[in-house]
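Example record for the data management plan.
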Amino acid sequence: MMDFISIPLVVGIICYGIYSLFELFVHKKERLMIIEKLSEKVDWAVLDGKLQLPSFAQKRISFSALKIGCLMAGLGLGLLIGFIFHTFVRVNFEGDWQMISMAYGASVLLCGGLGLILAFIIENKMGKKDDE
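Corresponding structural encoding:
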């Protein structure tokens, strides 16, 4: 039905990709030229002690395990709630599959989001404790 649009669409996407690739390389060369021009004009003696990398000696806690753990716990809780809802609907109403699948999806997304919010709250409280 829409076969007439597929060939021009593919050609357009390919041309845009090639254009973007060339543009990427040109911008890289321009940035390097700007950096070279600026480096000639900068007096490095003035910036002697001001340009330093941040100290990585401080112990930083990674919260990725906390986030993943809270997300997985929330997804598991959402699946459990969806299963309980499915059992309730099947016993009492003999509900249709669309409503049951929607209940599973909604409960998983809701509890997963709540798990991430919980991880965010815990991370903020631990961050405030470290600042004190």
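Summary line stored alongside the record: The mean pLDDT is 81.
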